Amino acid sequence: MISGYIGFGRPEESRRTFKRMVEYGIDPNAFTLSFSIKACAVLGALKLGRCLHGVVFLRGFASNEVIVHSLSASNEALQSFEEMAEPDSVSWRTSSGQVKRWRNYFRSMREDYKIERGLKHYNCMVGLLARAGMIDEAEELINGKALQGESFILIHHEFFEGCK
Q1: Dihedral sign from CA coordinates of 149, 150, 152, 156
Q2: pTM
């Protein structure tokens, strides 16, 4: 079920199913952990992703091929966006090289690792681009994402904050 939810673009259901599994006392195996890690990457659930990473090592799955692939694909995305998730004045000082680096991570999530980018990822990129003065590119990113309701408000708030 966990992998099925991921496959059908429902990472939140995947996360909830994993949580219920653990609450019922069912030990996760390499497959359930690997898909749960992917769900964390898609959702931007950094804290849970770090916890699952720890479970991988505690349970001795660190050398399991399924886990190794999952961690190499998801860990890079989680790490990259983790650095952007809690910006401070230093991390938001942007140069063209930094913007290019984050743009590559953002692209790589979907194209290389098949990780669906969530609203948090878009918010990070929009804020980064706006803070770097790349207003047109930030607007293109917003316009390319079909947003409604709260998502629309959140991403535009990030855009306007970045334009200050």
Answers
A1: positive
A2: 0.47
Instruction: Name residues whose C-beta falls within 8 Å of residue 74's C-beta, 6 or more positions apart in sequence.
Output: 37, 38, 40, 41, 49, 113, 115
Q: pLDDT per residue over 137-158, tens digit each? A: 888 888 887 666 667 667 766 7
Structure tokens at 32: 């359930």
Burial (CB < 10 A; 0-12, 13-18, 19+), residue 139, is: middle
Helix axis angle for 11-23 and 30-43, nearest 10°, is 130
**Angstrom distance (rounded) from CA 42 to CA 36:** 10
118-130 per-position pLDDT tens digit: 888 888 888 888 8
pLDDT-derived band at 90, boundaries 50, 70, 90: very low
Question: Residue 96 contacts by C-beta under 8 Å, 6 or more apart in sequence?
Answer: 132
Would you say how long the chain is, in residues? 164
CB-CB contact of 110 with 116 (8 Å): yes
Residue 86 is given by DSSP the state S
Can you say whether the dihedral through the CA atoms of 90, 106, 39, 66 is positive or negative?
negative
